[in-house]
């Protein structure tokens, strides 16, 4: 088939052809997918840890005062369970936290 109709068919066939694995178009699609996944993960991630130790201790103390378990409170504040236990001692020594 020649003429405009033939060229249209060739262009459509070219568009429908699978993209080679190492092609630029495929790499762009993969990059977009990776960035979209990273953004989704960032939106679903827990809040960032508090900026300083005093803020973390204060946040931990507030969570513990509101009946949150020690391990979960430590995870929410962004510290390890051992650091959470150290925060427990600081809270007992200084109840103003």
From TrEMBL:
It comes from the Bacteria. Residues 74-97 are annotated as: Disordered. Residues 85-97 have a biased composition (Basic and acidic residues). This is Uncharacterized protein. The lineage of its organism: Bacteria, Bacillati, Actinomycetota, Actinomycetes, Streptosporangiales.
């Amino acid at each position: 088939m020649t003429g405009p109709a033939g060229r249209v068919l060739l262009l459509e066939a070219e568009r429908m052809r699978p993209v080679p694995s190492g092609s630029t178009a495929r790499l762009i699609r993969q990059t977009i997918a990776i960035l979209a996944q990273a953004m989704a993960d960032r939106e679903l991630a827990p809040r960032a840890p508090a900026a300083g130790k005093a803020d973390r201790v204060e946040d931990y103390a507030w969570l513990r005062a509101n009946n949150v378990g020690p391990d979960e409170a430590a995870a929410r504040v962004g510290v390890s369970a051992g650091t959470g236990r150290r925060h427990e001692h600081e809270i007992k020594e200084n109840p103003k936290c």
